[in-house]
Amino acid sequence: MSMLHALMLNHSQFEPPVLKRLQVPPILGHRSQIDESFQAPCRFFHLSQNVLSSRAHRVPTWKNLASIPFAARQEHTTVFLPPSTIAILGGIIPSNGSDSIIPVETVPLMQFYSIPDDTWTSRAPVPRALNHLNVAVVKGKIYVLGGLTESGNATTRAWSAVSDSWVYDPIVDTWESVLAMPLNEARGSAAVGVYDGKIYLAGGMTMLELFGNRTQDTVSIVSIYDTRNRTWLTVPKPAKQIPEGRDHAGAAVIGSRMYILGGRNHAQLNVKDTVFILDLCNLEAGWRTSDERMPTARGGVTAGTIGRKIYTFGGEGNPAAENKVFDEVEVYDTVANRWESVGTMVVPRHGTYAVGVGRGVYIPGGGVVQGGAPVADFNVFIP
């Protein structure tokens, strides 16, 4: 019996024991880049320079939290579920039975982490095993809008896009199907943002081959799902395509603007340093590229927001490191339009997601070697 089959027999029986509580940063508003409550639809948005500059003289720190239970994880998606829960969905775990060059298997697991208690619990799994899922939280519910799943055989193995979409209600611990992604727009690894009840998917990839040419089919398309009307919207032509294809990029929504940071285009080592910006109140204006580039071009990067700032972590495609993984932590001030280096990761990795909550950015799991090498490490970065 594989590890996955053992875990999925009954998710409720795998509740981990309560772990010793750690001192974690206080929750100051529980806001993240996908928390809709932070946004005032299409109104003037301003963050006080005085309030948000109070952190300037702090020395950044890392704190270790309870490791992901049961199995190390990579290529999962992480979201914040108010008031105090972090959820991780899908991804890949180590597999002794895999005949792939990368011995991993894709899973449908979903686990909740309690910030106040520093404990993990298992919840109803995603209806389909997926990695590189496109996930967002709107009004207390978790939406999964496509992703990548296993395809091919032992010699043609790949991860291919699916259009299946669902919504999860944490109160009753159940999933419900919603309208699938539009024809020819199925993909995983999209940059995801939420604004005014709508979920924005920008870029992504339709195929990632694990053998042969190792093709990575990157796309530039933009899709919008309206959670109120449970339908996919027609995207105005100026906003329908980002300036260039991107997958494995960082993403954030601050105020009424969506940001796509770094990522890669059609190849694992074709990493980028761009910042694409879209005014979500003026889609007709289309995307623009910031004149401020990331200090370190990287794909597989993860990003989390605190106030007006976007913190970027790790990534892969680093020619200077033996494991090809970046350890850089760099912050983009969206008001000052300026980048700054703020140290290095305590466990450098890629293939994970970060979420900003209160005054910390939480980063569970990821890969410590370019390609596949999942770990269970879980840390919070406090700038």
TrEMBL record:
One short Pfam family name for this protein? Answer: Kelch_KLHDC2_KLHL20_DRC7
The UniProt entry, under InterPro entries, shows: Kelch-typ_b-propeller (IPR015915), Kelch_1 (IPR006652)
Q: What is this protein called?
A: Galactose oxidase
Q: Which SUPFAM superfamilies match?
A: Kelch motif
Q: Which organism is it from?
A: Plenodomus tracheiphilus IPT5
